[in-house]
Amino acid sequence: MIASEILEKRREQMFPKLTQAQIARLEVCGGRVETHAGDVLVEPGERLRSIFIVLAGSLEILLRSTTGEDLLYLLGPGDFSGEMSTLRGSVAFARIRVREGGSVLAVDREKLREVVQTDAELSELFMRAFILRRVALISTGSADVMLLGSQHSADTLRLREFLTRNAYPYINIDLENNTDVQALLDRFHVRLEDVPVVICHGSRIFRNPSNEELADCLGMNPVLDDTIVHDLLIVGAGPAGLAAAVYAASEGLDVRMLETTAPGGQAGTSSRIENYLGFPTGISGQALAGRALSQAQKFGANLSVAASVLRLNCDGRPYRVQLADGHSISASLILIASGAQYRIPQLDNIQRFMGAGIYYAATHLEAKLCQGEEIAIVGGGNSAGQAAVFLASSCQHVHILVRADGLADSMSRYLIRRIEQSPNITLHSRTQLTALEGSDRLERLSWRTQSPNSTPETHEIRHVFLMTGAAPHTQWLQGCVALDDRGFVKTGPDLSAADLAIARWPLPRSPYLLESSVPGVFAAGDARSGSVKRIASAVGEGSMSVQFMHRALRELSVPRITATSASS
Ligand SMILES: Cc1cc2nc3c(=O)[nH]c(=O)nc-3n(C[C@H](O)[C@H](O)[C@H](O)COP(=O)(O)OP(=O)(O)OC[C@H]3O[C@@H](n4cnc5c(N)ncnc54)[C@H](O)[C@@H]3O)c2cc1C
After folding, report:
1. pTM for the predicted model, two decimal places
2. DSSP character for 489?
3. CB distance 260 to ligand 1 below 6 Å
4. Tens of pLDDT along 270-304?
5. How does 103-117 read in b/e, with b if 16+ C-beta sit within 10 Å?
6. Which of 156, 250, 455, 507 is deepest in the core (most CB within 10 A)?
7. DSSP code per residue over 428-452
8. How far apart are CA 308 and CA 476, in angstroms?
9. pLDDT per position as a tens digit, 194-228
10. Atom of ligand 1 nearest to the CA of 241
């Protein structure tokens, strides 16, 4: 469908006309500005500070295109400009130019945030319009950024993933499938060997930029004052971090989120989540993340992407985190929501089959998908054993692939016995997965046993369960908070007296549930020791942690009773 058709179909929701009563409510938040034909109110690449409500005259929304400039929409009286980037404080995609002079009401970002937090009717109208406008920009390929790359280049894939997962509209030009490649390369003075190349805002050219360079050029992140002390700094914008941001910001805390890649975390990479409460037909990880981020931003939380935390300095309060780009940021409270990463066998096309034949969990849902079929499980720990025994009851045959000589060192005895007694479970020791094949989904796989002269065997197996364990993203915490023997953050009752003594826990109370060995530093989701590795539990922990944060903040504002003050 072409851009104009999509715009027309959703026109009423994307461009609702404000009534006189609604405009009157907004008038107290903004200032009237006279406009003259030809005035440019916003340039693409400029940081969006306000939305404009047309009172009289008209505004053109213009998008740069390969041929010049396209008119995306004409705003008349009662219409308003703006999109998700206005709330986020990132830069404009489009030029806003006055066609017929008149007047507009300019409402700045802070006032707009107040409106969407306090006026239910306007909140629904603005939020829906902003979200739909972003969706339309992406689905129509209307963008101010061009990525010239090759589908065989890992860096092209990295950049595509970064832009896509951050819901950033871009024009993708695949050099293999574009007949006019040379003309394009000549036009931007780049060579074939320079790809991937990003052309940012129609002029700045980057040869194989890092995610940080790209985010910077596109102005994806809000400009914030790094000298202020935030109430709460959340490291990681997966389900746990986003949930904490929604609750903390809606309860009045000043919240900043820092994220290495894109909102959504591991869940953001899932093509369809079927077991998250409230979505009976399933929802893609990216859609879930997009909704959560809009909600967090509506309440005033700020997110910086391509922002990796290298270190937490917890020696004194406020706490400081050191970022990879050299900046450091302070906050009274920290939430560790940096999650974990499942160990994935090193196979080129493995990501393609995630959720389409490759699974991380063996629940009733997955069991149904492979009922009566042959399956493979990779891993030799207890989770692999439990999955094998469970799936053997409904699958035709279960193959367990382990690198080790056997299971004795990694699995509980009772599970090994059950596996040995199950006629439809075969253990393949010293064996590794070597290839995956299929088109839309996994169709067959190969494995190889480490023995002299062994060759890979190919099997028509369409389902593989990766039970290889997860490694936490907690390297940035080393020396700061107590970790368990696998590197996950210990919290609340899991902290022993010895942990607290080593960490020199300074308070008369014990750590709150979800609080680490350092007061005011909390952990939620997959990075937390003993957590259930599920979206719902990460969301639950992130939300719950905010209750304890309020208590921890109150302690900071109450003067501590010292021996001298108590006796006087
Ligand atoms: C492919 C896949 C499908 C899944 N499907 C389901 C499902 O259907 N249902 C279900 O319940 N669960 C599912 N899970 C599990 C679920 O996604 C996780 O349990 C959940 O995402 C954990 O949330 P989290 O916020 O704790 O951590 P994560 O989702 O891991 O998010 C952590 C975030 O922190 C960021 N980060 C890490 N280190 C740093 C740093 N130093 N600085 C800044 N940022 C950092 C990461 O980039 C990441 O975005 C799936 C997992 C995967 C991988």
Report:
1. 0.86
2. B
3. yes
4. 777 888 999 999 898 899 999 999 999 999 999 99
5. ebbbbebebbbebbe
6. 156
7. ETTEEEEEEEESSSEEEEEEEE-ST
8. 10
9. 889 999 887 789 999 999 999 999 999 998 888 99
10. 25
